[in-house]
Amino acid sequence: MKTNFCPGPISRRSFLQFGGLSLFGMSMLDQMRLNAASALGAPQLPQDTSVIFIWLPGGPPHMEMYDMKPEAPVEYRGIFKPMKTNVAGMEICELMPMQAKIADKFNIIRSVSHEFADHGGGHKRFMTGRIPATPTGTINDAPAVTSIIAKCLTEQGGFKDGMPPVVLGGAGSFDAYANGPAYLGASHTPFMVGDDPSNRNFSVRNLAISREMEARLEDRIALRQGLDNLRRDVDQSGVLTAMDSFNQNAFQMLTSTKVREAFDIAAEPTRVRDRYGMHAYGQRALLARRLVESGCRFVEMVWENPFPGRPTPVDCVQNWDSHAVNGNLFNDARWRFPVYDQAVSALIEDLYARGLDKRTLLVVTGEFGRTPKISTAVGTQSKVMQPGRDHWPKAMSMIVSGGGMRTGQIIGATNSRGEYPVERPLSPNDLWATVYQHLGVDFTQSFPDHQGRPMPILPFGDTINELLPSKSA
Q: Which helix (H) or strand (E) holds 106?
């Protein structure tokens, strides 16, 4: 088999520094080999749709962002003013003027809710589409959406041109935000990109092989080819042939020019990187666009601290968890929202400008909203009395864009104080049903748990019809 290694040294603009072969403690060959036996005979999935999922851990304040209540009592409504957008009747926070100009390119959902107010329970409830066994902790007892999609897509030849079908960026581990595989097993975890792509020294360590490893890999491949040819001659089940394809996928991913170029964010023009913003939010958004454009099917990017490695202001919060003891809700918004606004608007504009909006669905959300009534407390860092909001899963807001859907809509509504849905009540499962359908995944199918019991991908929920592609798309 002829292989194409990267010719010559990596250019200065390329940050993909070759190093080790490990992926979550196992080689990529091992990971794919675990998938191989179940790959035979499954239905073919669409190959041209993708999802970018932006995760805002901690719980974004819905009444400061997309569900403002200017007529509510002062202890509810906060201090910011709603801003008109380019969609009649749609208003968002005055701190997000870039999104206001392109509101016709996204939808706001205001009526998703659930019952888990702890971060761990909220993460698990949202990311698995199931009622978690425990209300705290982020270790899943049911597989996360990322693992379900990884299983479904990988088993259908998802490593097209070496590109991993599912990527998780900005998380130290898949357990940190309840992205664990549970009974699907470690072979169905997403490809991890933990480093900050806004960092000048950004590298994708899981793609790394050293120059001296190339010859060793070539030798091993030549040896394995002879052994595999012999084993295939006596194999009657076809499993070994399937395993061979996964070996090829792993090697292709390690040596593929397309994979290397997709992750090489430094190749983007300076004006494009600046439009997204040279911070973690912006560069993770840009990397997500590059990945889906190159063939990744589901990319989750965690937007926690917009400036990792820099000191966080004493009255601001490292993530979106805006309790009064953590930070000043309003000062944190002044610090965080402009960065968020820049990154979200740039991503939406870029998806549309590059013609990706028809096939790429963008979802931006956290695990829950914040309490409608403002509280006050002395800040742990600031040492002064300051306002904040606590956890509130009974109401939350999110935005969705692309996917060929009709946009410029407000879906659902909460009551006059932002406490609970009063129109079009939805759950996280309804969102995931829509995402699965977009990717061509049958969310009614089941997988066996550790006891061999069939577990449906979603035990309840249905597609959000307002988010389905328009007939003219």
A: strand 106-112
Amino acid at residue number 335: W
Structure confidence by residue, pLDDT tens digits, 144-162: 999 999 999 877 665 677 7
Question: How far, in Å, CA of 318 to CA of 119, rounded?
Answer: 15
Q: Quick check: 120 and 368 in contact, CB under 8 A?
A: no
The contacts of residue 246 (CB under 8 Å, 6+ apart) are: 29, 32, 33, 35, 36, 39
Helix (H, G, I), strand (E, B) or coil at 50: strand
Which residues lie closer than 8 Å to 41 by C-beta, 6 or more apart? none
Amino acid at 334: R
Residue 157 backbone class (left: φ over 0; alpha: ψ -120 to 50; beta: rest): left
- Tens digits of per-residue pLDDT, 72-94? 999 999 999 999 999 999 999 99
Residue 471: is it exposed, middle or buried by C-beta count within 10 angstroms (0-12/13-18/19+)?
A: exposed
Q: What is the mean pLDDT of residues 314-319?
A: 97
Residue 63's pLDDT band, with cuts at 50, 70 and 90, is very high
Q: What is the pLDDT of residues 409-433, one digit of tens each?
A: 999 999 999 999 999 999 999 999 9
269-274 average pLDDT score: 98
Question: Strands 50-55, 298-302: parallel, antiparallel or unpaired by DSSP?
Answer: parallel
Q: Which is nearest to 32 in space by CA: 178, 202, 150?
A: 150
Radius of gyration of the chain (CA): 23
The single-letter DSSP state of residue 58 is T
Decide: 128 and 178 in contact? Cβ < 8 Å: yes
Q: What is the pTM of this model?
A: 0.84
Residue 23: pLDDT band with limits 50, 70, 90: very low
Are the CB atoms for 128 and 142 separated by under 8 Å? Answer: yes
Task: Tell me 184's DSSP state.
Answer: G
Measured in whole angstroms, the distance separating CA 384 from the mean position of its chain's CA atoms is 36
Domains and CATH numbers, the chain: 22-467 (3.40.720.10)
CA dihedral 12, 13, 19, 23 (to 10 degrees): 180
Q: What's the start-to-end Cα distance of the chain, in Å?
A: 42
How far is Cα 408 from Cα 220, in angstroms, rounded to an integer?
55
